[in-house]
Amino acid sequence: MTAFVPANIPSAINTYERLAFWVAQVLQDTTNGATLNVQAGQGNVPRAQVQISKVADGTDQAIVSLYIPIDFDALNSATAKTWMAANDLSLATPNAVYTSN
User: Fold this and answer.
1) Integer Cα distance of 42 and 89 in angstroms
2) What does DSSP say about strands 48-54 and 60-66: parallel, antiparallel, or unpaired?
3) Distance linking the first and last C-alpha atoms of the chain
4) What confidence tens digit (pLDDT) does each residue in 21-69 have?
5) DSSP for 4-66?
């Protein structure tokens, strides 16, 4: 489990977009290069990856890929929120650069 302490979210993060970008970067950091075979016969891909790219309209965009294991039974629970089905990716602690402004 990547332990989550709400107080570790930098106070400058004030939108869902910034929060999502931060979470993706923290997961990329804590998974430390872990990979997953997504398609049989193909190479592995990173479990968490953030890339920056200039797209067709000329704007810079963050491209976020996350492969988070889930508990399928929990995903279909009548009482729990869907995000509670997420299983752990890592036991690592985020680098301190991700817990300060």
Assistant:
1) 22
2) antiparallel
3) 24
4) 999 999 999 998 999 999 999 999 999 999 999 999 999 999 999 999 9
5) --GGGS-TT--SHHHHHHHHHHHHHHHHTT-EE--STTS--EESEEEEEEE-TTS-EEEEEEE
Bridge partners of residue 14, in order along the sequence: none
**How far is residue 72's CA from residue 89's CA, in Å, rounded to a whole number?**
16
Alpha-carbon 7 to chain mean position: 18
Q: pTM of the entire structure?
A: 0.87
- The pLDDT assigned to 1 comes to 55
CA gyration radius for the chain?
15
Of 88, 100, 101, nearest to 30 (Cα)?
Answer: 88
SS3 state at 70: strand
Alpha carbon distance 81, 54 (integer Å) = 35
User: DSSP secondary-structure letter at 87?
Assistant: P
